[in-house]
User: Fold this.
Amino acid sequence: MKEKLKKFLFEYTRNSRITTKELGKKTGMSQQSASYLKSQMISKKQINPTIIIDAVKLGYINVLVGFNFINPENSIKKKVIAGLKENQAIIRIEECKEGIDLLIMYSTQNLSAFNKVHTETIHEYHEELKTNFVCPIIVNHKYHKNYLIKKFDDKDIILFGDRSLREISKNEEKVLNELIKKPDKKLIDIATSLKIQVKSIIKIKKSLEKKFIIKGYGAIIDNSSLEIEREIIFLRFSREGVNLIDTFLEFSKYNKNIVEFTKLIGEYQIIIIVESLNRIDLLKKIRSEFPIEDYRIFKSEKIHKKQYMPEIT
Assistant:
């Protein structure tokens, strides 16, 4: 991958609402070149903007579920994935090529609501899907894609850490929904859609950011087409090693290939997501430095859907 493309992907995934002028400046391209590359990659679905929302502030919980296909025919896979994408409570769908078939993230108001929607999913696809595991999420740390650049940005976006609820107005709900539907939508277009003055939209957006409901603006990358290796690794620490999880969090934050660290409830305590341009064996290093009792590795094929919360209804 060329250096300018690496820089482009790094800057765009760090802030997908960045102006093309600023994007050109940061990547060493002209504004015209940055704008063209952005539009081309979006049209090819190689990049897709997202808005990073800390849904716990609005009372949501997230639960990760692993599924395997009973019949792995491509036509069945496509039909099931298309159906799951329409489910508003499902905010993430990641297809894997090894270890598991689908990783699904639900976002609901409580465990009872999760159980209801998951039961409905199981019933609807009882001939196509088999549940492999269910893991409620405790906290999620997102890191920038430092493997793409030489410098290191150690920013840690923490989701589900601070569980203090925030109240938002009806207009804040409306603006948030507009951004969930289209994260890169221009504020003037949001103002037109909602029939609210642009100055008010700007103020509302800043308010949502100040309340730490909006934590940033990222992007999904089509890793396969860009030849980026992506692995989801589940880790279980030994009983004696559990007190080293915070040390492992620091290790994860400063490792250039780890882009997410998640604590969860279940058989495994930690999930890390590892991305690289060249195949690496990070697990070997982890096992040599930390007391890992067991692990599972899932190799990602494609992210079909990724939001941080459902639209507010």
Observations:
- The chain has three domains: 3-44, 56-145+222-306, 167-211.
